[in-house]
Amino acid sequence: MFPRVSRRSTVSQICYAILVLITTFFVAISCIFLLSQAARTAPNRSFVKNINAVVIGAAYVILLVLSLAFCLKRRIAVHRRLQRISKTFRTLGKNDVPDSVFLYMQQEYARACLIAYESRPKEGFQEGWGRPGSKYAGLRFRTSLLDSVRTIDKLAHLVIPRHPPLRPHARMLHHFRFILPLLSRDEDGLTPLHYYDSAIQLARHSSREPIEQAYVIGIRAAKEIETM
């Protein structure tokens, strides 16, 4: 972005310099032609005692002085205006600008805040992720379920120091078989490890992302295993 702005500034300065040179050239040519015309039409055909040449020369000298004065005035005005700009960051207050400008700034700020708030996703849904506004917002279900395996494995080694090391594709029922007797069973005769194993298998091998219901069942089973 900055190199592009720098190139534009350089091109603008070059074009301005070319315009000044062309203008100066044509003004000088016109001055020479007018002075030569004044000398040719004079009775003595000379610049001596030639009032027309004096008037033409004076007119061009006045034009040069006025042009230089105008350019100098503009440069000084721009320099003074830039000097009045604060070089330190400062929040504008109501007394720093006219009331109409301050009211306009307030309206634009409120409008921008309202647009930003209304643009936030509310009903959006992405498969495998928590819904915006829910307690699972910004959470990917597959990653969270697979990360919980290492946590439970570390806790299992604290309970059973000789617990086998974790293998990448091992079933949870097989890997945590030694802690299975420590878990309570529900009315169907299933332990939290059974539900957890199903959720992990789904997260590992399913081509589709886990839904929120499957994640809730799996992570709830993981919490029950951690707090056994």
Explain how this protein is built.
This protein is mostly helical and 228 residues long. The protein is 64% helix and 0% strand. It has 7 helices and no strands. α4 packs across α6 (192-205), α4 (141-159) runs parallel beside α7 (212-226) and α6 packs across α7. The longest helix is centred in the N-terminal third of the chain and has 40 residues, at 2-41. It is rod-shaped. The mean pLDDT is 85.
Task: Give a short summary of the structure.
This protein is 64% helix and 0% strand. By secondary structure, the protein is mainly alpha-helical.
Order of helices and strands: HHHHHHH
Structural class assignment: mainly alpha
Major beta-sheet overview: none
Q: How many strand segments?
A: 0
Strand content: under 5%
Can you give the mean pLDDT? 85
Question: How would you describe this structure in keywords?
Answer:
mainly alpha; single chain; 228 residues; rod-shaped; 64% helix; 7 helices
Question: What does the secondary structure layout of this molecule look like, with pairings?
Answer:
Elements: H1 2-41, H2 51-83, H3 99-118, H4 141-159, H5 172-175, H6 192-205, H7 212-226
